[in-house]
Amino acid sequence: MSIHLLVDFGSTYTKLTAVDIKKECIVGTSRAMTTVKSDVLEGFNLALEKLRNAHPEMGDIEAISACSSAAGGLKMAAIGLVEELTAEAAKRACLGAGALVEHVYSHQLSKKEIKQLKSANIDIILLAGGTDGGNKETIIHNAKKLADAKLDVPIIVAGNKAASDKVDDIFSDAGCEYYIVDNVMPKLKKLNVDDAKNVIRKIFITKIIEAKGIKKAEEQTGEIIMPTPESVLKASTLLAKGYEDEEGFGELMVIDIGGATTDVHTIGEGVPKRTEVILKGLEEPFAKRTVEGDLGMRYSANALVSLVSPYEFKKYYDYQDKDPSKEDYIEDSVKKRLENVDYLPDTDQERAFDKALARICCDYSMSRHVGSVEVVYTPLGNMYYQTGKDLTEIKYVIGTGGVLINSPDAKQILKEVNKKSNKKLELRPDDPTILIDEKYILAAMGLLSQKHPKLALKLMKRHLK
Amino acid sequence: MNTVVIGVIGADVHAVGNKIIDHVLREHGFEVVNIGVLSSQEDFINAAIETDAKAILVSSLYGHGELDCKFMKDNMIEAGLNHVKLYVGGNIVVGKQDFKDVESRFKKMGFDRVYPPGTDIENAIKDIKEDLNIS
Description:
The structure holds 2 protein chains of 2 kinds.
Chain A: E1 3-9, E2 13-20, E3 25-33, H1 40-54, E4 61-68, E5 75-79, H2 86-96, E6 100-105, H3 111-119, E7 124-127, H4 137-149, E8 155-157, H5 164-174, E9 178-180, H6 194-211, H7 218-221, E10 224-227, H8 228-241, E11 252-257, E12 262-267, E13 277-280, E14 287-292, H9 301-306, H10 310-316, H11 329-339, H12 348-369, E15 372-378, E16 381-387, E17 396-400, H13 402-406, H14 410-414, E18 433-436, H15 442-448, H16 453-463
Parallel strand pairs in A: 1-4, 4-10, 5-6, 5-7, 7-8, 8-9, 11-17, 13-16, 17-18
Antiparallel strand pairs in A: 1-2, 2-3, 11-12, 12-14, 15-16
Helix pairs in contact in A: 4-5, 8-15, 15-16
Chain B: E1 3-8, H1 16-27, E2 31-34, H2 41-51, E3 55-60, H3 65-69, H4 72-78, E4 85-90, H5 99-108, E5 113-115, H6 121-131
Parallel strand pairs in B: 1-2, 1-3, 3-4, 4-5
């Protein structure tokens, strides 16, 4: 047997997937609590032991690949000039690299913002601003501010090429750790994030992993090659595009509802489907990821329920015989989840409550991810502006993350992505086929795809149901 | 770099003139940032900020230009673009009006130059070069 072991050091669980490369099958999966605080290998070894016990026939492990979102994942700040242009491009570069974007700043940084950056515990800063040959003043001002602040954080410079020499001098004189890469928006509305993404990953592998105490795992697992969300994005892209003669699924969407965040990935052009629609705003990436930090089942449960009124909440909550006099059930249930983030629902009512939370995550994250249209009345008749991606013709929606994998109602929860009569201007999927990542293998398949893309694709097609 | 932002303002979809202006400006060595039709004031302003444009050339052909251009210079000043030249041309008002009146109204609104229908783009380019000190 030739086993390739895929490891995902998650914020809560360390998850293992063993793949037999020759037989082209998944041998088994296992998980154990992530142990970043003591020794990250404890959790890994425990999960490996579980895997071996369950599959004694499993032979020697030939290769291991790992990704990580443990210890808070990869936290970034994005800085640009105009909020909708270079600041947004910088933000998308971070998201595409699998980061959580804690802060986005536009125009010239103020003292207050620098203070905020200092206290924010950021792993990497991405500094953009100006098209190539465009505005230099702001990025130079911001570089000076960052240099003066003496933050012990790597800075990636991805702004106006014409200002890069000056910025280079500022950071080298100040002794900062910095990297100069291609502009994230070289021409107006043109998105160019690959170079920045590669450097983010490089810094993640070499520095961030170490700072978070996960580096130790590399003694046994080999290099941790990317943040987990990037791995999921890679798996999704492969699944959409196909590989050689193995066909892909075409345009698709992946929703990952977690304890702290909801991630949405779409693979597809998302261009207007009708001729009277004009595309506005910054170019959209083919593989797009958005992360909602206020939509999560546990850590973010409080923020989540504050988005909806109790009246609206009832629309998502389909538990019938609740005591109508007990109005504070929302508060109590949320509290239970915040105090015990490992909580698994044990009654029908609690299960229904989790389902309601998941439906809200799904519905709200969709509203924020998909593009929308706006009607313009012109003398030549109605025209439409489209901002963002048109995802009406997406064929597949794939659900992953604990709540979806473990809920018998997963497919019903995911129906929330569909076109809605009260959200007509949002370009949501019409009626996609819904699949569930039952074995929780998407991140693992993103890792596997680095060496065995065809096999990763075949396994996803076999196991997503 | 002599960057200029061009586009058609408001709910106006006249694309042909826009393409001609784009072409001729490039021939004269300008770096053209063309934001196209159906563009709002905000689109012009954001484009000019990021690209460090020296001038904004607003086209309007459907008669509602006067409404669409209201407060544009004020908004540019708010956005820190008071140094950027602002031009407008096309059928910029409703019906046939005395151009002298139209020109003075637009100048009052902060436009540096105002062009009547049928202006030859070459003439406008002469003005732009003069205004931007391009030999």
